[in-house]
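#struct-help
A.M.: can someone run this one for me? Single chain, 318 residues.
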Amino acid sequence: PYRPIIDFEYHAYSINAIRIPDIKQSHSSATLWLAHMHGLVGNIAWYWQQRFGPYPFPHEHFKVWFYGSLSTQPLVATEYFQTMLKLNTFSRDVEALASVKEKPVRIFVSKPSYIQNRAHIDALHRVYEGVCFHGLRVGFITEQELARSGTDDGCRMIIIPDAEFVSAEALQALEKANKSGVRLIRFGKINTTRDAYGLPHAPELTAFLKDVPVIGYASASALSKEFEERLKPITSEFEVRVTHTDGSSAFGVMHRQAVLNGKRVLLLVNVSKNLINVQLRAKDARFVNGFDKLNSESVKGEGVELLFQGIRLIEISL
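D.P.: on it. Structure tokens below:
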């Protein structure tokens, strides 16, 4: 009983054979902060006593679940519980960051394309990699949503990732959005040519897509750079910009800002493979300072150090 077995319903870890037996301690905190920033509101941790005998689990079949699991990685498990305590401590900040209303960029999701062509799924993932490091809360919009309700006033860009099978109603909604000022961008190498049943569309229905710019496959960093230029009309409106020391967008650092009780808070999570230094700048390009509430230290805008999988929750002084 004094040696518990731990299992998390939070599936950034696994206790079964599909696991990494040497997860870094910082993985716990980084993934939990990212998950809550994206809307996770809670998770369950199970733990129970080991059984007597050679197998900790109640059946021999499950013995491979234990060795190398989180039950044999106490630092990772400890970091999980400590991070959950910190998330609860700063729950109002977390809620504000997760509840940012503005979602100016939407990624188009096509259920028929999902079903009939794996390329749509792959392209959707690559698009998200390209736009997620620019401080935006990225949204998604489905064919059904477009056909039923069109786009809302906050939508300024729709990215269409390798969607071959799209309904006529969704295409008409996309064309209407384009005419109303929403910027469309196609991603990948597959044209939208068929409906949900595989029947070809009339050429006049897809003619507007010929004037839509296309971004091709590339590395995540190259895609992020490509989208950086296209997103500038949106990201330039941020009160605080997070950049590399050369002024470029901070690829590899997930970040989001929100206002809580009249004060601006900024979350930084380093998901790149190395330590990284970023800068915090106001709209007028001057450096802005702040106080890191997680690490209880002041930070200077001209150089904020983030360790590998490091996290900072900064209250900004504007």
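A.M.: thanks! The longest strand covers residues 253-260.
D.P.: also worth noting: The longest helix spans residues 74-89.
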